[in-house]
Amino acid sequence: MSESLDLLRLRSGIETSKKRQLFMSKFNLLDTIDLSRSTLLSATFDENFEPGTHKPQHESAVGGQVFELATSRIGVALIIGSVTAAPKVPPVLALERLLAERVEGEVFADKMKQYLGRLVRFIIEDLGGKHERYGARVNRKSEFKSGSTYTL
Questions:
Q1: Which of 23, 32, 62, 120 is the most buried (most CB within 10 A)?
Q2: Per-residue pLDDT tens for 66-79?
Q3: 72 and 17, same domain (yes or no)
Q4: Cβ–Cβ < 8 Å for 35, 74
């Protein structure tokens, strides 16, 4: 009797685990996001973006992935949402999870984070936003210690 009860518990646990995995995969938005280019960015965005001293990062494989994610529909939406909802928090934080899950390589190396900051600033300015301040401290666990803030 106890053996069949243990088997039932084991089977139930496996089924619960499978249900949880199905739920997580079904509702994990990062698995189903649209990574096409945002239509909110100007038609000349790529031509006008100047990576400056971050040209090596921009031209690298990781930099290309970062650029594509940041300028995608979800990337721009995350940036706009961040600036709108929390204007005192650096918007690069809004892209952190997306970058961690989608970009392979040293995405959080110091130079790549600086490149991302430059890219985010250019995106916000392309949308009509303005730089607010440098060095806003990040007060949560993050790959970023500080960043710039903006207004839209």
A1: 120
A2: 999 999 999 999 99
A3: no
A4: yes
Residue linked to tokens 């938005």: 29
**β partners of residue 150:** 131
Based on the fold, state whether residues 54 and 97 are members of the same structural domain: yes
Residue 95: what are its φ and ψ, rounded to 5°? -95, -5
Q: Hey, is 56 helix, strand or coil?
A: helix
pLDDT digits (tens, 9 = 90+) for 37-53: 999 999 999 999 999 99
Tell me what pLDDT residue 104 has.
87
Which residues lie across from 72 on neighbouring strands? 37
Residue 30 structure tokens? 């990062």
Range of 42's domain? 35-151
Regarding whether 24 and 55 lie in a shared domain, the answer is no
Instruction: Find the radius of gyration of the CA atoms of the chain.
Output: 20
Whether residue 2 sits in one domain with residue 47: no
